[in-house]
Automatic annotation (TrEMBL), chain A:
Entries under InterPro entries matching the protein: G_TrmE (IPR031168), GTP-bd (IPR006073), GTP-bd_TrmE_N (IPR018948), GTPase_MnmE (IPR004520), MnmE_dom2 (IPR027368), MnmE_helical (IPR025867), P-loop_NTPase (IPR027417), Small_GTP-bd (IPR005225)
Organism: Polypterus senegalus
Similarity-based family: Belongs to the TRAFAC class TrmE-Era-EngA-EngB-Septin-like GTPase superfamily. TrmE GTPase family.
Domain TrmE-type G: 295-467
Lineage of the organism: Eukaryota, Metazoa, Chordata, Craniata, Vertebrata
Pfam families: MMR_HSR1, MnmE_helical, TrmE_N
GO molecular function: GTP binding; GTPase activity
Keyword annotations of the record: GTP-binding, Hydrolase, Nucleotide-binding, tRNA processing
UniProt GO BP: tRNA methylation; tRNA wobble uridine modification
Domain of life: Eukaryota
Protein name (Swiss-Prot/TrEMBL): GTPB3 GTPase
Length: 545, 667
């Protein structure tokens, strides 16, 4: 991080700003953080969080008060295949200061990311200067003061303002100067933790997700998985299943010569039923976890010239799609990755649905329909003027429109009525009243892409929908985050079915079902061997001839 | 290679064991294989080596104890019955002898599926022992000598094979030296054995028999790691003192199933089988155990005993407040004794009497011989190759309880493998091993040699990964033909029988598969069977056989001309049909295990300093166990799949990894 370090401007002390509650919240702040006081700080903050990405880069540009030029974007796009050179980015954007924070004490307190750049598993952040101790206390909320000098301490690092957990890390406190200290290599600590058996497989995956976490909600979920919530859940299942298998094996190996208690099989049945239910409901979380991990597919669709591209541009606050008054301007799917309220979103603008003889547009319409098939959330866009014209068969028109868009559940859709600026207040009110009566309609948003009125409200609705789709990662059962887990869990369920099928006919085959169910779970949590089964048998039963 | 048993001179055949035998004082006698011990491991080992064609000597402390059942008067059981079947498939003795001398046959687990059926028989102690002695006498090339073995003779190793020394023979108690190219130790509980009665302790391997102390010392000198285990045996009770009237009666099977593939039926008339009785402990038993605990050293000491065959003391201490089962088993047709299975105990004899008072039926029981405990040395079986040859001393094999196992069947299974391999060793032929994917014997030996033991090891069906394939019914098809080709320790009659069955089985199964009818027609023919309405198209008779309630007899009624000739195989065909749908997946899994078993790990790897990404825990476990293959390594607790991957990467990168029989080919 040489270049960035050089660029780190001395006048602004971003960390101090980050820590200073008295700094007034500013409009330029993006998202939940009150920290983006300057671009340099912003970049560093992102590095600190390990989730610097394009959208946030855009945030920088927007903070800078203008949109990036193509040349600047090229700088970004280099990051796609090679590593982003933050120094270059900073060079393009000479930092402009939105505020200046008075230096703390005599000298300046500076901080820098000392480890590898870009997405990496381990970040070493070096803070140096008179306010270092203060920073440390604020970030760690250590009550009992500073950790002992030169001793590594595992501690949570929290947002000093909200108190929310950002990450966990090792703290090393060196009073005085640090001549010649070389930070550890990236990845070294993680690898060691894994090999020392400190992390199980799900935890390692969680770490992978954390490294690649691009949005706030993703980061929170990754952190949660790493802390072992998901691992703990799978572990619990593995224990239940091991127990069930041990009881069945005991019944097979010992029941005729020993007095294995009656009802052992009923117990196995209960264990299995409970597992089936839990795994089933875990699998049917509507892909919440995976969605959070890979992004929610939001598709804007509607009739030609209803203003879909304008809406897309309004959402991402840049002219991502070409807009013109001519119907059929958008012929292909325009895709943008966005961070909306901390949730990763893949937003698609599509060609308007209409019958056409234009071959290219026809293909566009086909692609639109394909996109709608895969959509997690459809933003159905209508020209409110057209609605007014058809006011006598309003209901029919709306429902056939939604049906045309392949909307089967009202929860998967937001109905957006655009161009309200073209209507009189009374006309609007009448429509409002008419639509209110319809209970089966999805959430309706009234807006004008042209004037921007209603956009804020629409974004609020969109955020709320996203929250439902992704689940709040800090509440309830941990979500499934990996397709790999899903497939093993499916196999596990299938094998439990085999048990059900054979349990009264052939114990060996029924046990085979439990064994392979356990093997499937074991692919997530680690293997359970015959010896562990026997240990359980001898713990639970008195076997003795 | 053909068996050579028929073309050999009968050097020194035993006529009667009471007569004095061969070459008593001839020092410098030379044999191919010397077997030390005449228990279940020793007799199988000696007979197998002799069947192969090795000049074999069985050395035992007491000729009259050859083939003694030192503990329970029964063979087989769940998991153990599988072992007996496999020993029989390798042309072993115990299965055939049980069929001759059994007095109560019962297949356990009948309701749980043929893969876990447990063939079991009470046998007549005396009949079994004399049948075994006759068998040993009748085996060509097998000589017997009464002596104690005091020392092992070793020389410098054969440099072309791993090992620190090479065995050349044994020194007997009288100082005589007998030379042998291979030596098999099957000394059971006799290595520094000591018997425990209450607080007193007497050196001994079995009641009234001296322990082997010299041999134990010489094994220590050779650098073998030893451990100590304990076991126990119940008091023997006089039959006439037992009141059977109020006890639960258990009959033998109406149609006894023989252990041996060579026998169509057992010797005893089904109706002549003796009865077993079942009774339970009462709270008074617990009181006696607690009151006499101070006078019961065996229970107090922390030498490891078996968890699944514990003494009555440890049962009531670990699981208080329960009624524990006690099986009263007959010891023989003319025996006056009853064996109370489940009452193994080491308390002083007067306490044993007091304890029996609290068991229904045994209130007036008269003890003929008190129960006692045995503590003995075992050698860490991780020092063995899968052939049961020691890694340290070439030509030295170990089998049975000396390796930390318990049970006649486990001993016999190891004995036959050691015997076969000792013979192959003397002929410098490739070794014969059984994989976990081929038999319970493979599971047993792999568990022993890769994981070691922490308590006496007993076979359970739950130890076998491929349980639905490794069944008692197909042991002959799994093992006989291969063993015949690779060892020559299988008699001609045996392999002919196995081949005959194999060809008729496959003929019968393909015939059943070819008999196809529409499912509608099947429904008409077999209305009582729940063939699904929705099922359309044709079904073969083999498919139909998988339905519950369908028997080959029922199908033979439909196709009498085709199927009646196969009715004698109906049980076996039916089992094949039941498990066939699952065989495919199991075979894929077995293939994976077999591949891993082919990936041989160098024996000299320095796991502690290997430049591979391995956790400290994994390193230590690998260092301690020195698994012979990747398959064995992956079964070690603490070795994660990730560790296996790193190990493979390292071995591949460094070119150290060899497959059995050649360099590793990238898979």
């Amino acid at each position: 991080m040489q270049s960035a370090e050089e660029d780190c401007n001395a006048e602004v002390d971003p960390l101090a700003a980050l820590l200073n509650d008295s700094v007034p919240k500013r409009r330029e702040r993006i998202d939940r953080d009150g920290t983006y006081q300057a671009k340099g700080a912003f970049l560093r903050y992102n590095l600190l969080c390990n989730h610097f990405d394009q959208r946030q880069a855009h945030g920088v540009f927007e903070t800078a008060g203008r949109l990036p030029s193509p040349a600047e974007l090229t700088v970004w796009e280099r990051q796609e295949d090679t590593e982003m050179d933050y120094g270059d980015l900073l060079a393009v954007f000479k930092p402009r200061h939105f505020c200046s924070v008075p230096p703390v004490g005599q000298g300046h307190t500076i901080f820098a990311l000392s480890s590898g750049r870009g997405k990496c598993g381990v970040a070493v952040i070096r803070v140096s200067g008179p306010a270092s101790a203060f920073c440390l206390c604020q970030l760690t909320r250590m009550k009992q003061g500073l950790p002992p000098p030169r001793t590594a301490v595992l501690h949570s690092i929290s947002d000093p303002n909200s108190g929310e957990l950002l990450d966990r890390g090792l703290l090393l406190w060196f009073p005085g100067s640090l001549p010649g200290l070389r930070p550890a290599e990236a990845g070294e600590f993680t690898r060691r933790a894994f090999q020392a058996g400190k992390l199980d497989l799900t935890e390692v995956e969680g770490l992978g997700d954390l490294i690649h976490a691009e949005t706030e909600a993703q980061r929170r979920q990754a952190l949660r998985q790493m802390a072992g919530d998901l691992g703990h859940l799978y572990q619990t299942w593995s224990h239940t299943l091991t127990r069930a298998l041990a009881h069945l094996e005991a019944f097979i190996d010992f029941s005729e010569e020993e007095n294995i208690e009656d009802g052992v099989l009923n117990q196995v049945d209960n264990f299995v039923r409970q597992l089936q239910m839990e795994i089933h409901s875990h699998l049917h979380d509507n892909r919440r976890g995976e969605r959070l991990r890979s992004g929610v597919h939001v598709v804007i669709a509607g009739e030609a010239n209803a203003g879909k591209s304008s809406l897309l541009n309004a959402i991402c606050q840049r002219p991502a799609a070409i807009v013109s008054p001519i119907a059929g301007t958008t012929r292909d799917v325009v895709e943008t990755a966005l961070d909306i309220g901390g949730f990763p979103v893949l937003l698609s603008d599509t060609a308007g649905l209409r019958d056409t003889h234009d071959i290219i547009e026809k293909e566009g319409v086909r692609r639109t329909r394909e996109r709608l098939e895969q959509a997690d959330l459809t933003v159905a866009l209508l020209d409110v003027v057209g609605l007014l014209e058809a006011s006598n068969k309003l209901t029919h028109l709306l429902f056939s429109f939604l049906e045309d868009l392949n909307v089967r559940q009202k929860q998967q859709c937001i109905l957006v009525l655009n161009k309200i600026d073209l209507l009189h207040k009374k006309e609007l009110n009448d429509l409002h009243c008419a639509l209110k009566k319809e209970e089966d309609l999805p959430t309706v948003c009234w807006l004008s892409c042209k004037t921007g009125s209603g956009i804020e409200e629409f974004l609020r609705v969109l955020r709320a929908e996203l929250e439902i789709l992704c689940g709040n990662p800090l509440l309830g059962m941990p979500s499934l985050t990996q397709a790999r887990h899903r497939s093993h869990l499916h196999k596990c369920l299938e094998a439990l079915g085999l048990y059900e099928y054979y349990k009264r006919a052939d114990m060996a085959l029924a046990a085979e079902g439990l064994r392979s169910a356990l093997a499937s779970l074991g692919r997530i949590t680690g293997k359970v061997g015959a010896e562990e089964i026997l240990n359980l048998i001898f713990r639970d039963f008195c076997i003795g001839k | 290679m053909l068996p050579r048993r028929f073309c050999h001179c009968h050097r020194a055949r035993l006529q009667f064991l009471s007569t004095r035998l061969i070459g008593q004082n001839v020092s410098g006698d030379q044999y191919d294989v010397i077997v030390v011990g005449g228990g279940h491991a020793g007799t199988e080992a000696a007979a197998a080596a002799a069947r192969g064609g090795a000049q074999t000597l069985l050395v035992t402390q007491k000729l009259s104890t050859i083939g003694t059942l030192s503990c329970n008067p029964s063979f087989g059981g769940i998991g153990k019955g599988h072992l007996v079947r496999e020993v029989d498939a390798l042309d072993g003795l115990c299965g055939r002898l049980c069929d001759q001398t059994g007095i109560h046959f019962k297949v356990l687990n009948r309701s749980k599926g043929p893969a876990v059926w447990g063939l079991r028989a009470q046998v007549d102690r005396l009949l079994y022992r004399s049948a075994m002695q006759r068998e040993v006498c009748a085996t060509a090339l097998l000589n017997v000598r009464e002596a104690s073995v005091e020392d092992l003779m070793v020389e410098d190793p054969d440099a072309s094979r791993p090992g620190l020394a090479r065995v050349t023979g044994v020194r007997l108690g009288d100082g005589a030296i007998v030379l042998g190219r291979a030596v098999i130790l099957t000394t059971g509980t006799f290595l520094s054995g000591s018997l425990k009665f209450g607080t007193s302790s007497v050196p001994g391997g079995r009641l009234g028999e001296a322990p082997s102390v010299g041999l134990s010392l010489s094994l220590s000198e050779l650098g073998f790691t030893k451990g100590r285990l304990k076991t126990g045996t119940p008091p023997r009770i006089r039959k006439e003192s037992v009141n059977f009237d109020k006890l639960e009666v258990h009959h033998g099977d109406e149609r006894p199933v023989p252990f041996s593939f060579m026998n169509a039926e057992v010797a005893i008339e089904p109706s002549q089988q003796l009865l077993c009785h079942l009774t339970y402990t009462t709270p008074g038993v617990e009181d006696v155990v607690r009151d006499t605990l101070a006078a019961n050293d065996h229970v107090q000491q922390d030498t490891k005993g078996p968890r699944y065959c514990p003494s009555i003391e440890s049962k009531v201490l670990r699981f208080p407040g329960r009624a524990h089962q006690v099986w009263l088993e007959p010891e023989g047709l003319n025996s006056e004794l009853i064996y109370p299975q489940g009452l193994s105990m080491t308390m002083p004899v007067e306490a044993q009497v007091a304890l029996l008072r609290h068991i229904p039926g045994l209130e007036a029981a008269d003890i003929a011989a008190a129960g006692y405990g045995v503590q003995y040395d075992y050698l860490d079986p991780r020092q063995l190759h899968p052939t049961l040859e020691t890694r340290k001393v070439q030509g030295l094999f170990m089998a049975g309880q000396i390796n930390g196992t318990t049970g006649y069947e486990e001993a016999a299974a190891q004995g036959i493998v050691a015997g076969i391999n000792a013979f192959l060793h003397t002929r410098s032929l490739p070794p014969f091993t059984i994989s976990r994917t081929e038999g319970y014997i493979g599971v047993l030996i792999d568990d022993l040699t890769s994981l070691g033991v922490t308590e006496p090891y007993r076979m359970f069906t739950s130890r076998a990964e491929f349980r639905t394939i490794l069944r008692p019914d197909n042991a002959d098809q799994r093992l006989t033909e291969r063993a015949y080709h690779q060892t020559g320790c299988i008699s001609g009659a045996r392999v002919v029988t196995a081949r005959h069955i194999a060809s008729r089985l496959s003929e019968g199964i393909s015939l059943l598969k070819s008999l196809c009818l529409s499912s509608y027609r099947w429904k008409q023919l077999l209305p009582e069977v729940g063939i699904s309405q929705e099922r359309s198209g044709h079904m073969s008779a083999f498919d139909v056989l998988q339905y519950r309630g369908v028997t080959l007899d029922a199908l033979a009624a439909v196709f009498p001309q085709d199927l009646v000739p196969f009715l004698d195989l109906s049980d076996r065909i039916q089992v094949e049909a039941l498990y066939e749908p699952h065989a495919e997946q199991q075979k894929l899994d077995m293939e994976q295990v077999r591949r891993d078993e082919q990936l041989v790990l160098p024996t000299d790897l320095d796991y502690l300093h290997l430049p591979a990404s391995l956790s400290i825990e994994a390193r230590e476990v690998l260092h301690r166990h020195r698994p012979p293959t990747i398959a064995a390594a992956s079964r070690l607790p603490g070795v994660t799949p990730a560790a296996i991957m790193h190990l493979l990467y390292f071995l591949r990168a460094s070119g150290q990894q060899k497959e059995a029989g050649g360099p590793l080919v990238e898979r």
